[in-house]
Design brief:
two-stranded antiparallel sheet, 32% strand
Length: 149
């Protein structure tokens, strides 16, 4: 797991945690006000312009003493308009770099996009299988995603 510097994350216990870029948006419902870390991956933790990486990571920490390294859940987010194939590559590359090694951690990846071309369905299925097998990570794709923490 890559170390995340303090300057690349922010602690929040908001009921709704929103990531948005252009016209794409995902809202996490945090009804129990769990301590969460909003991590800027693209241009933050991974600043190399040539490396494929997702936009953000949401880390849900354990109570009562939040710590970004004591993870209960990890949610990898890629906000895309239409290029789902590129988004899948970004997630497949980012998850192994930033995930913790604890197998008990709930791990999900999200592609927020407007349209999914039928021709890409096989690539989506392959990415789902790869993320599940290698990283124990569930992949979700859609326009309006509101996961519960």
């Amino acid at each position: 797991m890559m170390k995340i510097a303090d300057k690349h994350y922010k602690l929040t216990q908001s009921k709704n945690i929103v990531f948005k870029e252009n016209k794409s948006k995902i809202s996490f419902l945090n009804k129990n006000y769990k301590p969460c870390y909003r991590v800027q991956v693209d241009g933050g933790v991974i600043s190399d312009r040539t490396t494929a990486k997702c936009d953000n990571l949401l880390v849900v920490s354990y109570f009562p003493e939040p710590d970004i390294d004591k993870r209960e859940q990890e949610h990898f987010v890629e906000l895309k308009g239409t290029d789902v194939a590129h988004a899948l590559n970004q997630l497949v590359d980012t998850v192994p770099k930033l995930r913790c090694d604890d197998k008990k951690v709930k791990r999900c990846a999200y592609v927020v996009c407007k349209n999914v071309a039928p021709a890409i369905k096989t690539k989506i299925q392959n990415a789902k299988l790869l993320l599940k097998k290698k990283d124990n990570c569930e992949l979700h794709i859609g326009e309006h995603l509101e996961p519960k923490l």
